[in-house]
TrEMBL record:
Organism phylogeny: Bacteria, Bacillati, Cyanobacteriota, Cyanophyceae, Nostocales
Protein name: Pyridoxamine 5'-phosphate oxidase family protein
TM ranges: none
General stress protein FMN-binding split barrel domain span: 10-144
Source organism: Anabaena azotica FACHB-119
Top-level taxon of the source organism: Bacteria
Cited Pfam families: Pyrid_ox_like (PF16242)
């Protein structure tokens, strides 16, 4: 098996783990070094490179935190299905209009009432480095995926 095949399988496994989970907790590092978490709507957007995408305002506090310290954690949970996923990686702010248009979904109007015309709309791109997860199939022993 080649490395790219292994990676593709790991990304598919991650996609299956987070399938159907609409919200994640994104943790960033504040300027004083403290951790700051907030819920983020997740529209199922994980690409074939193992990258998570979230919509954000480019002027939000989380965007400023990511510009100073790129390390983030993203956590998903589905207690009813006994799935818990913790992702660590690096984030960057993306303001590319074409990328924003490509990833836009109507559900996002809840947070961006002007849609794609929202003046400070941006994407948070999370490059995944490691995934730890617990689920009923693993008998709640930690399993890891490195991307």
């Amino acid at each position: 098996m080649t490395i790219s095949t292994d990676r593709n399988q790991q990304i598919q496994q991650l996609q299956q783990l987070i399938q159907g989970i609409d919200y994640a907790m994104l943790t960033t590092i504040d300027e004083d070094g403290s951790l700051h978490s907030r819920p983020m709507y997740f529209n199922g957007d994980i690409d074939t490179n193992g990258t998570l995408w979230f919509f954000s305002s480019a002027t939000s506090h989380k965007a400023l935190e990511v510009e100073h310290r790129q390390q983030v954690s993203v956590n998903f949970s589905s207690p009813n299905q006994q799935r818990f996923i913790s992702i660590s990686g690096t984030a960057e702010l993306v303001k590319d209009r074409q990328e924003i248009q490509q990833r836009w979904q109507p559900e996002l109007e809840t947070w961006f009432p002007q849609g794609l015309n929202e003046p400070n709309i941006a994407l948070l791109k999370v490059n995944i480095k490691r995934v730890d997860y617990w689920d009923d199939k693993s008998n709640f022993h930690a399993k890891s995926i490195s991307l």
